[in-house]
Amino acid sequence: MTVDDRPTLSAPDDDPWLWLEEIEGTQALDFVTRQNELTLTAFGGKAYEHDRDLLAAIYDRPDNIPYVSRRGGDLHNLWKDAANPRGLWRRTTLAEFRKASPAWEIMLDIDKLAASEGEDWLLSGIASTPGSSRAILSLSRGGSDAVTLREFDLVTKNFVADGFTLPEAKGGVDWLDDDTLLLSSAHGEDMATSSGYARTVRLWRRGQPVDQAEVIAETIADHMVIYGSIDDTGPAPRVWIVDQIDFFNHAIWLRDAAGNTTKLDLPTGIWMQAHGDWFAIKLRKDWMAGGRTYATDTVLGISLSAFLSGSRDFAVLFEPTPRRALQGLFWAAGKLVLSILDELRPRFEICTPSAAGWSRATLPGLPQIGVVDVWTLDRHPSESNGDLLANVQDPLTPPSLLLIERRVASPTVLKQAPKTFTADGLVVTQHEAISIDGERIPYVQTGPAGESGDAPIYMSAYGGFGHSVKPYYNASLGKLWLERGGTIVQANLRGGGEFGTRWHDAGRLAGKKLSHDDFAAVAADLVRRGVTQPRRIAAQGGSNGGILITNMLVRYPERFGALFCTIPLVDMRRYTKLLAGASWIAEYGDPDKPEDWEWLQTYSAYHNVKAGQPYPPILIATTRRDDRVHPGHARKMAAKLQAMGYEAWFYEPEAGGHGYGKDNKERAGFEVLGYRFLKERIGWRDGD
Known about the structure:
Elements: H1 26-43, H2 45-59, E1 69-71, E2 74-79, E3 88-92, H3 94-97, E4 105-109, H4 110-117, E5 121-128, E6 134-141, E7 147-153, E8 158-159, E9 165-169, E10 171-177, E11 180-185, E12 200-205, E13 214-218, E14 225-231, E15 238-246, E16 249-255, E17 261-263, E18 270-275, E19 278-283, E20 287-289, E21 292-294, E22 299-303, H5 304-308, E23 315-318, E24 324-332, E25 335-342, E26 345-354, E27 357-362, E28 371-376, E29 388-394, E30 397-404, E31 412-416, E32 426-434, E33 440-448, E34 457-460, H6 475-482, E35 487-491, H7 501-506, H8 512-528, E36 537-542, H9 544-555, E37 562-566, H10 585-588, H11 594-600, H12 605-608, E38 618-621, H13 632-643, E39 648-651, H14 664-681
Parallel strand pairs: 34-35, 34-36, 36-37, 37-38, 38-39
Antiparallel strand pairs: 1-2, 2-3, 3-4, 5-6, 6-7, 7-8, 7-9, 10-11, 11-12, 12-13, 14-15, 15-16, 16-17, 18-19, 19-22, 20-21, 22-23, 24-25, 25-26, 26-27, 28-29, 29-30, 30-31, 32-33, 33-35
Helix pairs in contact: 2-6, 2-14, 8-9
């Protein structure tokens, strides 16, 4: 018997499993149905149902934190629980929100809406404008990125009968005035880029057919997306237009109230935030301006009017060090807030501009360990009075939602999340592994104190797109892994943003393989330290982390006992041809260019899998409504592994989008299925 191991590196498009890319194809859905039945039969049952219901009950707890944003004088929240699995859009006041049990006004019951219209609706976005009684709601089918837009009356709490509506497409809107929308949507003929996102920015006036809306900006099909946003923080409304060339580079245009458009003379690889007559940028590369060279990751500030008049007299607001990096920046009532990781510890600084220069201060009253996230309370910058929200937690301490009021010295606790698992005897420790090239790779370990030599380990990481992984409180892992005696490990791989651009770039393009080496090094370090053995290490990764997990399968199989690969990219030869794949070329490379394929083929596990290898068991899971990462990646990898005789399981629920389910019970079921599989395959009997 011969093993059909196509596609091969020499003929990467000769693929016998190509039919599995037909998302709704009859043969493909038959495959999915059979695979789901096999997987649920093997890992479902009473133990699965018990843990799923246990976890869903945690997600549905009435004392979970209702996260809010302020629009006008009200706090808005989207709430899901067992009685409202799709969610309630509701609002209250800040005074009421401070109470233990606030009274809420229901704006929209999404479950009732879905039932009445026979649609799989979820609410994914709300576009409103200060002082207006109208909003545009983005309704998603089953969690997909593509949305249907519909105008909603905030007073009557009903959809507007003859209001703005737009069929399903990727993109959204902002309000220019009560009768005009700024539309950045892929809807319409030739309106989508090759990545599937908006190719134009249009002015869509009330009562006007959308195909007659005025195009005020457009990009070429090979760019990722173009979009516009309204800025009403200045003396007159203005529009920022961003032509996103790729994931990390974009050109920025300013359109004034008279319709005049000016391109800003800035490098393309920046983060930029503007407010009133000031703006700040974070550089992705070294940049020379005004006779001075500014280093990568430096943050600069300047008056917008002065800049447009030719001044390049920037103020330096932040300078990085090798392990101190900016994580984000935003404005609140004329003050610029900088979020920083310093040796992975959270820091927040405030920079305030004036004609006399920029003043600097540290945001007081926040812990300098664990995880701290800070953002503005107000949805619209023009309404901000400077109030901020902060979320504080660590792997063993549930989140606290804090209010940082302007001119109030100390934050106040608004809400405290419940403890969802017993943390007695557990400790959080930080360690570093040495990767294949000598780089130090940080990781956080949470579990029982001491080294047993046989600990059941749950490892996870991401390592891509400059995204920083932080050790959050995880209710599901806490309840179903830590509380039952296991240990969890979270690694900070290159490709992330924990230490800035140099850390990201080291794990990008050809360096992506190093990111995978980093993860394998952490697994080896756990064994070296006497924590566990390879057969007891279970690892999970999703999306970009799916590339990671499939590379652990084919490159480092001896270091793991079982693998859980979710909503993954796998086929790096065809990824740019599938859904939003072309938008990630800046992270991975272009497989149609021979020089890029030279490195892409080294971590395209779909092409590197071979018969007769000691691969550990793997469960590959996706969702049919994921319109970001094509479900064909997961389907094809599972089918190919099975055809080669490997233990490869597959699971694909119908809904969920680029996530684990459209409601709390679906999400819990997806997660628990993975946990049950991993536990069984690493030989861990956790008491059930």
